[in-house]
Amino acid sequence: MTRTPSLALLLNLVLTVACKAPVTDDSDADTDTDSDADTDTSVAPVCNKSVNRSAVNKPRGVFTSVLTSGAVGNPQMQGGLIRVPWAEIEPQPGVYDFAAIEDRLALLPAGRQWSLGIHGGYVSVDENDPDLYTSHTYPNGTPRPELSLEMAPSWLVTDYGVETFSMEFRGVPVEMAKYWDPALQDRLSVMLEAVATEYGSDPNLALVYVPQMTSNGLEGHFNGVPNQTLLTAAGIDPNAPDANASFGAIWVQASLQASLSVATAFDTKPVAFEVHELLGEATIPVQIMDGLLADPAFADRAGIGMWWISGDAVSYQTDLVDAIRLPPSTPE
Question: Domain for residue 221, yes or no?
Fold first, then answer.
């Protein structure tokens, strides 16, 4: 897919779906299966990726990935994505500052839709690493770091004891909060409730992304991070034959828990989880998709986003693209 500098096709919620039990011989094929009274719970539901049974409208069209004066002037733009780091909107526990969101909203033309992405991610960087600084400087001449010094707030560690692991992001050592840490999940839920109180009733808010504890905190990847680093962080022996599966179980559970926190806080809004292959395979994101599709707690409001799709059909994430693609013969 070709991406213009200012506009990106909104590829979210391609899996907003209806999930229903398979039709048996004595069932009426046209019967509404919202009730599970006659459902064999031992059989996995059939998920139709093409049908949206939710009453919540999903956004469609071209959304700019960054709100700029040039982007909002493009007549093709139906809306824009507002992205902010968690650390910026909650600088101290329970203290919220929505100025960054408001500044971006001020650029949005009246009546246009917007989507919200709150970055999770690393809680600190190695401020002494020379790769953190290049030729960029502040107006006073002091070096300007190439990365934010924190994406998720550092107080998660200092005040709540959230565990981290060491990795590199864009060549700079960072400390990444563990997505599966219960204290992190709890504080993530608290923050989302506060943001939803402020913006959840905005009719122009069309979509909310799930924060992730990944390289950039919103996309579901650890590109460039060795598999061994992730496995070891989760307490898994990288040489164990089931190492990838064990990590997958931990990561999928954390991802679905965070997704449910978003869906619960923003209880009238669509929710999107951005997927990438992990550990070099599509198994984990496919399991996340299956969880979003099959769990009735999401009320058919949850789906996926995929921000990076290669124009070369054989070069990038082809297994995941195949899993997302709807076969023409998929039954309702």
Answer: yes
Average pLDDT over residues 133-149: 76
Residue 85 maps to which CATH number? Answer: 3.20.20
Q: Do residues 18 and 45 touch, judged by C-beta distance below 8 A? A: no
Write down the pTM of the prediction.
Answer: 0.82
Tokens 């693609």, residue? 325
Can you give the length of the chain in residues?
A: 332
Tell me which H or E stretch contains 261.
helix 243-265
Tell me the per-residue pLDDT of 39-84, one tens digit each, with 9 for 90 and over.
333 333 344 444 555 677 788 888 888 888 888 888 888 899 999 9
Query: How far is residue 64's CA from residue 221's CA, in Å, rounded to a whole number?
Result: 21
The Cα–Cα gap between 294 and 235 comes to 29
Q: Give the chain's end-to-end CA distance (angstroms, integer).
A: 29
Beta strands of 96-137 (E only): which ranges? Answer: 113-119, 122-125, 133-137
Domain that holds residue 178: 8-324
- Provide the 3-class DSSP secondary structure of residue 122: strand
Q: Name the token pair of 142.
A: 């002091």
Q: DSSP code of 18?
A: E
Q: Is the CB of residue 87 less than 8 Å from the CB of residue 150?
A: yes
Is 332 within the bounds of a domain? no
- How far is C-alpha 229 from the geometric centre of its chain's CA atoms? 21
Report the amino acid identity of residue 271.
V
Residue 330 resides in a domain: no
CB burial of residue 208 (10 Å; 0-12, 13-18, 19+): buried
The rounded distance, in Å, linking the Cα atoms of 332 and 22 is: 10
> 3-state secondary structure string, 306-325?
CCCCCCCCCCCCHHHHHHHC
Check: CB of residue 199 under 8 Å from CB of residue 116: yes
CA dist., res. 178 & res. 126, Å (int): 18
- Look at residue 172 in the predicted model and tell me its pLDDT: 87
Does a structural domain hold residue 29?
yes
Number of domains in the chain: 1
